Amino acid sequence: MINPMSLKLLLFTASWCQPCKAVKPIVQELAEEYRLPYEEIDVDRDSTLPRLYGVMSVPTLVFLHGNEVVDRISGVKTKSFLRSIIESRLNMVV
Question: Which residues are tagged catalytic?
Fold first, then answer.
């Protein structure tokens, strides 16, 4: 099992992105529920991190375990879908 504090969520977004506005509260709620570190990165303000993590579109949610990308999801997804991804990542054998 992964320690929840070692799984981190990075949400890549932009102020002009309507789908980002739809997914943001879902990601925030799940991060709080699972007590996961969460960071939102505006791709228009920071171009380094999107390049580093291979982000090509917004919204993109990157799941990190330590410094390793363990999942990357682009587009708007349902809360239940994101919950299943989080739970599967928290149950990974390390």
Answer: 17, 20
